[in-house]
Amino acid sequence: MAGTGFKRFNVLPGFWPAFSYTVLYLSLIVLIPLSAVFLKSATTSWDHIWRSISSPSVVASYRLSFGASIIAGLISVAAGFLIAWVLVRYEFPGKPLADAVVDLPFALPTAVAGIALTSLYTENGWVGQYLAKLGIKVAFTPLGVVVALTFIGLPFVIRSVQPVLADSDQELEEAAASLGATRWQVFTRVIFPLVRPALLTGFALALARALGEYGSVIFISGNMPMKTEITPLLIVNKLQQYDYAGATAIAAVMLITSFLLLLTINLLQRRSRRFMEAR
Amino acid sequence: MKLNRFWLGMVAASAVFAAGPLKLLNVSYDPTRELYQDINAAFARQWKARTGADVQISQSHGGSGAQARAVIDGLQADVVTLGLAYDIDSIAERAHLLAPDWQKRLPNNSTPFTSTIVFLVRQGNPKHIRDWDDLIKPGVAVITPNPKTSGGARWSYLAAWGYALKKNNGDDGKARDFVRKLYKNVPVLDSGARGSTTTFVQRGIGDVLLSWENEAFLALNELGKNKVQVITPSVSILAEPPVAVVDSVAAKHGTSAVAKAYLEFLWSPEGQEIGAKNFYRPRLAAVQAKYAGRFPKVQLFTIDEVFGGWQKAQKRHFEDGGVFDQIYAPGK
């Protein structure tokens, strides 16, 4: 199958209605609102746009937003893979409950999550007081931002990896072991290639969510200029100052950067899937 | 036939709807929830007695700037009662929903009550905070919201600046230095006044909260007097949160008359008493005298005296790249 042209054969009829609906839906719900962002920021001068997106506090916020999101995504990948493994491969009492708990961060209003995490991690909070004795401050530091973003990102990884692990044949691992593979080899050569696309998906979802996250972060971050202001907060601040064009300009920067990041991850994922199929 | 009946029903329904109670939306800022609950009930009673008609008043609350933005974006406010004149100016300037000279239409700069900025400290005042100078001492954590997003925080910032100017015989550089030191002591910048009150009161962060006077007393009443106490500094700013009818919206709704009466009610003896009971400083001398014990004496300056009005203060201090941003610029 060459990658060009429409692929139309399918046992189910209705390619054109389905395809038109897809295009219409993507336009109305996704593309039109997004293009409004670019149109709005185009209503002002280049000078204003440049000053809005390159002021020192905004640049500092890019560093925090992208840095913390990527770190949180990586933590979610490691922890999420482990949790998914436990939920799929082991039997233990209360497993359905543990499985349901995973989804809670999806259901909780993010502001509630933010307030709860802040209460826990401030210097007199349940967890924070012990960390403070070790000299670790979480609330109102960039570390707090990472904690909040990990909290909301974790379920994405678990839910992406879980079905893949459940579907994978344990016999493959046994076969590898019987052919003399060490445990490490079984992991790196058999299990990891299987779940790699799912891990990438989970990472991409967690990253995308973290980049746009507002509610849970603004409580725990402390919002100190140049130190713990995330980019979405600065967008809201710009709106509060009636600088709509400046706000959309920053939003456009976030959007383009996120799009490039996600595109890269998608390409990586396709490559790793094709690699799997080729074997 | 069916269609006719449908239209008949619609006409009947709309007639009933039109004859229903008058509806008024008051878009206000954060700490006035309790005040306007009381005012609305009292005004509805008075309006019914005077005209025989019912009036239903809804309230909307949020950060003053965010509320103004919502009105600009189309929130159907018949009246706005916001934290600072600058926000109503913005509605007039950007959306042309009311006349630019709105502030001259009602007495006292269209401000029925005044307030000021005071300190809320922990019970027993363990850090011995008495006046503004104590806020810049090392080791004192001050809680106040971000003045770029919170109206109340702008009043606090300007109060601190005005105090420092007065103390240093108008030396601008020293005032800037004082404010810079003060913000060095701020560990968290929430986006609004209620957020900061929560940080200070519920989460127990910080030694002193810079707060609207009414918000401070409200916190005191809700928490009980054994948790926090209010400290009134020697000098503070006269905060004037103004009110205005949003002409275009009220005209469209046919509520111009009742909206005007609603705001005028705030200056009536009954309205002024409700304000005083909610810890807003009244304008009427008689009510002031009656509630004198409630409001500690403090030397107050106005924003016009010290800063030449909101437009100027906003431009110099809170715009992007303004003095507040410079405080946080790297290397300072």
Describe this structure in words.
Chain A has 279 residues and is an all-alpha fold. Chain A has helices spanning 15-41, 46-54, 56-89, 95-101, 104-107, 110-121, 128-133, 142-167, 170-178, 183-212, 215-221, 231-240, 244-278. The model of chain A has no long low-confidence stretch (mean pLDDT 90). By secondary structure, chain B is of the alpha/beta class. Helices cover 49% and strands 14% of the residues of chain B. Chain B has helices spanning 2-19, 33-51, 64-72, 85-95, 107-110, 151-167, 172-184, 193-201, 213-223, 247-253, 256-265, 269-277, 285-290, 303-307, 310-318, 323-327, and strands at 22-28, 55-60, 79-81, 113-114, 117-122, 142-143, 208-212, 228-231, 235-237, 243-245, 281-282, 299-301. In chain B, strand 1, helix 2 (33-51) and strand 2 (55-60) form a beta-alpha-beta unit. Classes of the chains: A mainly alpha (279), B alpha/beta (332). The A-B interface holds A 51-52, 55-57, 118-119, 122-125, 140, 218, 222-226, 233, 236-237, 239-243, 246 and B 63, 65-66, 69, 72, 90, 94, 146, 148-149, 187-191, 202-205, 318-321, 325, 328-330.
Produce the secondary structure layout.
The complex is a heterodimer of chains A (279) and B (332).
Chain A: H1 15-41, H2 46-54, H3 56-89, H4 95-101, H5 104-107, H6 110-121, H7 128-133, H8 142-167, H9 170-178, H10 183-212, H11 215-221, H12 231-240, H13 244-278
Helix pairs in contact in A: 1-13, 2-13, 3-8, 3-10, 6-8, 6-11, 8-10, 8-11, 9-10, 10-13, 12-13
Chain B: H1 2-19, E1 22-28, H2 33-51, E2 55-60, H3 64-72, E3 79-81, H4 85-95, H5 107-110, E4 113-114, E5 117-122, E6 142-143, H6 151-167, H7 172-184, H8 193-201, E7 208-212, H9 213-223, E8 228-231, E9 235-237, E10 243-245, H10 247-253, H11 256-265, H12 269-277, E11 281-282, H13 285-290, E12 299-301, H14 303-307, H15 310-318, H16 323-327
Parallel strand pairs in B: 1-2, 1-3, 6-7, 9-12
Antiparallel strand pairs in B: 3-10, 4-11, 5-7, 5-8
Q: Which spans of chain A have pLDDT < 50 for at least 5 consecutive residues?
A: none
Helix content of chain A: over 70%
CATH fold call of the largest domain in chain B: D-Maltodextrin-Binding Protein, domain 2
CATH architecture of chain A: Orthogonal Bundle
Quaternary arrangement of the chains shown?
Answer: heterodimer
